[in-house]
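User: tokens in, sequence out, please.
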């Protein structure tokens, strides 16, 4: 049974797998597709010397379960913004045909400010309705850019893009809503966020958090992240923060303690696979 050397909290890994993601189950097939994409991303990042790392619930899964949290249906990685920009240039020519890069440059209705890799051999419908207008709608993994900044500039920027989600949810005219959302996204991308970024550079902002356009924030200590190391994740060795323990402890507290297994949420409403 996996344990953390500092918390000594045991759990029965096989029982969790049998309950939530046994081999052949829909969730396990979903996880396998995400694993395939992150392994491909790892290959590309290694080839081009681009540092990335698992974080959030995916990092928690790596450290606590040596892979996916058994009930988890998403996968998150992060890169610093300078590396993110280079990665976005490299990925289109490196990805296999069945994996698509999704950004607001490649998909006109995609109004997020982080990228996704999408599996083109599946169709995923999420609980939230935003993906209904996206061009690519397969199983995905998220790639989040992190940037150093003045935190107040991020707080100013959060509602500017966050408002687009409210427009989408509350509008009865989807076509009108998307025209407005695309306009707001363009202004933020080309005018507002570059101005906030310039202010942060001039004033020497050092807080590390999500890039502008991501309408929420978590503050990270770079000393917990770098230098990076690797950790087992399913049948791969993937990049993780150097001090994953402190990073997870800061975010989750006693992260080896399992949550209430009878009250777990997910992202997926419907999922189809086309490569059987």
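Assistant: Sequence out:
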């Amino acid at each position: 049974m996996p344990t953390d050397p500092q918390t000594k909290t045991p759990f029965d890994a096989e029982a969790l797998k049998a309950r939530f993601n046994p081999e052949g189950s829909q969730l396990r097939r979903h996880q396998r597709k995400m694993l395939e994409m992150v392994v491909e991303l790892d290959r590309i990042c290694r080839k081009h010397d681009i540092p990335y790392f698992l974080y959030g619930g995916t990092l928690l899964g790596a450290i606590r379960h040596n892979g996916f949290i058994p009930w988890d249906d998403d996968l998150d990685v992060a890169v610093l913004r300078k590396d993110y920009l280079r990665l976005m240039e490299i990925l289109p020519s490196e990805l296999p045909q069945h994996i698509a890069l999704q950004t607001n440059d490649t998909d006109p209705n995609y109004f997020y400010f982080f990228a996704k890799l999408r599996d083109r051999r599946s169709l995923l419908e999420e609980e939230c309705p935003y993906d209904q207008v996206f061009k690519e709608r397969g199983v995905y993994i998220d790639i989040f850019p992190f940037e150093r900044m003045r935190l107040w500039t991020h707080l100013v920027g959060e509602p500017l893009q966050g408002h687009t989600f409210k427009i989408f949810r509350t509008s009865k005219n989807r076509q009108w809503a998307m025209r407005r959302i695309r306009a707001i996204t363009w202004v933020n991308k080309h005018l507002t966020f570059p101005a906030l970024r310039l202010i942060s550079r001039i004033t020497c902002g050092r807080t590390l958090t999500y890039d502008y356009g991501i309408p929420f924030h978590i503050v990270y200590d770079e000393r917990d992240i770098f230098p990076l190391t690797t950790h087992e994740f399913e049948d791969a060795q993937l990049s993780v923060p150097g001090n994953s323990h402190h990073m997870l402890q800061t975010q989750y507290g006693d992260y080896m303690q399992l949550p209430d297994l009878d009250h777990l949420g997910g992202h997926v409403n419907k999922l189809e696979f086309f490569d059987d």
